[in-house]
């Protein structure tokens, strides 16, 4: 039997000084400076199958993990656009590092679903890192004061360096699933506990994103106080970041966009010194290469525009206290979907363009980028089911409010 250990009493706002405060622009600049360092460490990160400890600290020093921390705690409380820009910058250095940064930066969002006093204890510093799978694959049995939690969860990206773990559960009472408070399906609740209260399984052997350490994890009969659990439909903190349940998905397209940018920059640098072997024509003057680069840049620009425009429009509406229209809900979801699709296409086309030298792991980053975008494109948010749901919503259908993808 497991029990939750005691939580620290000090809150972030008690420890932050003016000198430690970071604004959105400073965090973005730090992310851009960290990207070349991450590029140099990319091979090591991949071989390690998780982020090395000092790489975690490089990310922490950028301020990425505090991006969503509230201003009342001394955090920057960045907009979704600002956060996505930071993730995109990190992804130009290493995809696994960016994926972990994207996941870990949700800490400030998750803290807003808890009572503020509880949240300040659970998150003792602004850079507290969370990880975990929020979909309800576990079981939370009601007991006095909280829940007894059991289950196994997948895709714990960043779990090897996280401070806290989240786990989605179906609430059970008297041996049966409990109905949701609104009567729509079962009661889905997310629990938060220390990483040490879970068993981490060495399961992450993958084609790409190998350095993200996205291992399985489990627990059995873990007691979690009710105040350490929440529903994504019941934010306790007011503000734009918590006005819609898709907040934890908004920064996701930054990863594929950043990888595609890195691949394009790499091939453009190659073009300055390469010639086509069959004709002797420099790449920079060869029709096949010039049109391929222009075509890829055009596709990436369109994908970026869709992501950032839809995020900005959604944020403006939420800031006015209004919920997005069906078309606006679709716009942000499809822009995320398209970012994965376009990035995968661009990297694949550039990989083919570069030719035989792209296949060598030690010689070319193209091989890793191809594997990284292939793996991240298997994420549920890049799945074709999103097109189906989008079409239904555009044609007058309904998407349940609790559906995370929307």
UniProtKB/TrEMBL annotation:
<dbReference type="InterPro" id="IPR013107">
    <property type="entry name" value="Acyl-CoA_DH_C"/>
</dbReference>
<dbReference type="Pfam" id="PF08028">
    <property type="entry name" value="Acyl-CoA_dh_2"/>
</dbReference>
<dbReference type="InterPro" id="IPR046373">
    <property type="entry name" value="Acyl-CoA_Oxase/DH_mid-dom_sf"/>
</dbReference>
<feature type="domain" description="Acyl-CoA dehydrogenase C-terminal">
    <location>
        <begin position="255"/>
        <end position="380"/>
    </location>
</feature>
<protein>
    <submittedName>
        <fullName>Acyl-CoA dehydrogenase family protein</fullName>
    </submittedName>
</protein>
<dbReference type="InterPro" id="IPR009100">
    <property type="entry name" value="AcylCoA_DH/oxidase_NM_dom_sf"/>
</dbReference>
<dbReference type="InterPro" id="IPR036250">
    <property type="entry name" value="AcylCo_DH-like_C"/>
</dbReference>
<dbReference type="Pfam" id="PF02771">
    <property type="entry name" value="Acyl-CoA_dh_N"/>
</dbReference>
<keyword id="KW-0560">Oxidoreductase</keyword>
<dbReference type="InterPro" id="IPR037069">
    <property type="entry name" value="AcylCoA_DH/ox_N_sf"/>
</dbReference>
<feature type="domain" description="Acyl-CoA dehydrogenase/oxidase N-terminal">
    <location>
        <begin position="25"/>
        <end position="105"/>
    </location>
</feature>
<dbReference type="InterPro" id="IPR013786">
    <property type="entry name" value="AcylCoA_DH/ox_N"/>
</dbReference>
């Amino acid at each position: 039997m497991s029990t939750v250990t005691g939580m620290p009493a000090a809150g972030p706002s008690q420890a932050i000084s003016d000198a430690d405060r970071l604004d959105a622009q400073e965090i973005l600049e730090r992310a851009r400076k960290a990207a070349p360092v991450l590029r140099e460490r990319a091979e090591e990160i991949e071989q390690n199958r998780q982020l090395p400890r000092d790489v975690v600290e490089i990310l922490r020093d950028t301020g990425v993990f505090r991006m969503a921390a509230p201003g009342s705690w001394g955090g920057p409380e960045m907009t979704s656009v600002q956060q996505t820009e930071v993730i995109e910058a990190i992804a130009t250095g290493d995809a696994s590092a960016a994926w972990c940064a994207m996941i870990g930066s949700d800490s400030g969002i998750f803290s807003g679903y808890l009572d503020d006093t509880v949240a300040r204890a659970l998150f003792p510093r602004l850079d507290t890192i969370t990880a975990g799978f929020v979909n309800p694959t576990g079981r939370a049995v009601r007991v006095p004061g909280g829940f007894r939690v059991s289950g196994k969860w997948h895709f714990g990206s960043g779990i090897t360096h996280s401070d806290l773990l989240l786990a989605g559960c179906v609430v059970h009472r008297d041996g049966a699933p409990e109905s949701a408070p609104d009567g729509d399906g079962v009661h889905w609740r997310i629990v938060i506990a220390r990483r040490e209260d879970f068993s981490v399984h060495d399961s992450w052997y993958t084609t790409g994103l190998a350095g993200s350490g996205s291992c399985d994890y489990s627990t059995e009969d873990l007691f979690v106080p009710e105040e350490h659990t929440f529903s994504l439909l019941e934010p306790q903190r007011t503000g734009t970041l918590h006005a819609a349940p898709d907040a934890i998905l908004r920064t996701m397209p930054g990863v594929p966009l950043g990888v595609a940018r890195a691949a394009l920059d790499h091939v453009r640098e190659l073009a300055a010194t390469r010639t086509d072997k069959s004709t002797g024509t420099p790449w920079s003057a060869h029709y096949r290469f010039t049109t391929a680069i222009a075509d890829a840049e055009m596709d990436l620009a369109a994908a970026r525009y869709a992501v950032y425009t839809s995020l900005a429009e959604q944020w403006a509406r939420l800031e006015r206290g209004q919920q997005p229209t069906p078309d606006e809900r679709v716009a942000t979801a499809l822009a995320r979907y398209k970012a994965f699709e376009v990035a995968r296409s661009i990297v694949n086309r550039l990989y083919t363009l570069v030719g035989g030298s792209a296949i060598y792991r030690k010689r070319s980053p193209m091989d890793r980028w191809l594997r990284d975008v292939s793996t991240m494109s298997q994420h549920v948010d890049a799945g074709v089911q999103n097109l189906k749901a989008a079409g239904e919503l555009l044609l007058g259908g309904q998407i349940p409010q609790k559906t995370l993808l929307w």
